[in-house]
UniProtKB/TrEMBL annotation:
Organism phylogeny: unclassified sequences, metagenomes, ecological metagenomes
Gene3D superfamilies: Spore Coat Polysaccharide Biosynthesis Protein SpsA, Chain A
Keywords from the named record: Nucleotidyltransferase, Transferase
PANTHER family per the UniProt record, alphabetical: 3-DEOXY-MANNO-OCTULOSONATE CYTIDYLYLTRANSFERASE, 3-DEOXY-MANNO-OCTULOSONATE CYTIDYLYLTRANSFERASE, MITOCHONDRIAL
Protein's recorded name: 3-deoxy-manno-octulosonate cytidylyltransferase
A GO molecular-function descriptor: 3-deoxy-manno-octulosonate cytidylyltransferase activity
Organism for this UniProt entry: marine metagenome
Length: 223
């Protein structure tokens, strides 16, 4: 799965390089066997953002994009859209993609509410906004393509986990709890995070007719 994510990231116009950050020798070996690049990190990180912060210490890039390794159907144009938010506004330190979502009572999915500027107000595993008074209140789900300005990412890694981050078990709440903003970019996407065997089977079925897969399935990395 991580190879699919890697190959799809290579198709994004706004990414200059793609590197897998991992503490797993098995993942590193798989990525490199498929012609990809991987860096080993410590195994004691609390989350993936801390992991890529370690990897970013040796980079000179102004912007570092965290693409979660379970986003097997990530769309290259979605990556470009959220990276553009940082390119277009120097005040934005972090971005995140969101997409419309209708499934209720799914704690495996992170729901997002935004303010009028398009910045994240809160992220939760609960259904937000609530439909207690408004039937079928529209929801947004986090689509985990998260660009950071490098210096802000390195600063993030120095902060302790926040109370809400711990309660919701979601790393980006640490940013909000420290009083910083996250700029959201809404896209229409059917991308699925692979968290269960059912998710994996669903993605396998979609991959058969996926137009992005067609672009790289018969090409070597870099070809």
């Amino acid at each position: 799965m991580v190879v699919h994510v890697y190959r799809r990231c290579l198709l994004a116009d706004r990414l200059d390089d793609v590197v897998v950050a991992t503490d797993s020798e098995e993942i590193r070996s798989v990525v490199e066997a498929h012609g990809g690049s991987a860096v080993m990190t410590r195994s004691d990180h609390a989350n993936g953002t801390e992991r890529i912060a370690e990897a970013a210490e040796s980079l000179e890039s102004e912007i570092v994009v965290n693409v979660f390794g379970d986003e097997a159907l990530v769309m290259p144009d979605s990556i470009d859209a959220v990276v553009a938010a940082l390119h277009d506004d120097a005040s934005v330190n972090v971005g995140i993609l969101v997409n419309p979502f209708t499934t209720r009572n799914s704690p495996g999915d992170i729901k997002v509410v935004l303010d009028d500027r398009g910045d994240v107000m809160y992220l939760s595993r609960s259904d937000i906004p609530s439909n207690a008074r408004t039937a079928d209140a529209p929801m947004l789900k986090a689509y985990h393509i998260v660009p950071f300005r490098r210096e802000f990412l390195l600063e993030y890694a120095t902060w302790p986990a926040g109370r809400l981050e711990t309660v919701e078990f979601h790393e980006h709440l640490r940013i909000l709890e420290r009083g910083h903003s996250i700029r959201a970019v809404e896209v229409e996407s059917s991308a699925v995070s692979v968290d269960t065997l059912d998710d994996l089977e669903y993605v396998r079925r979609l991959m058969v007719s996926d137009p992005v897969f067609e672009q790289y399935k018969d090409r070597p990395v870099g070809g």
